[in-house]
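hey can u check if this looks right to u? its 96 residues, i copy pasted from the old doc so theres a chance i mangled smth
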Amino acid sequence: MHVRFTADAEADLNHISAYLTPRSPKGLERILSAIFTTSAQLEDFPFIGRDGLIEGARELIVPRTPFILVYRISDAYYVDILRIYHGRQAWPPAED
């Protein structure tokens, strides 16, 4: 399987980067490395995460970080990372 990041997940990565860059560049490097290492594991083990709070989605905790990957197994070839959220964030987001 191949892992793809949706536009929302890429926006989440950009927000994480914007927040951590001035505060802890080394911390950002560690967090991004953990996120990409964990997402790469989904290529071989797509069911490693738990059932998610959104129907049809799964969630996987990024070890040694406060972040959680929300993903969906799109078909036999792709895993789509839908969002990357901090464990203290309200999830799923409240509907307007």
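The mean pLDDT is 93.
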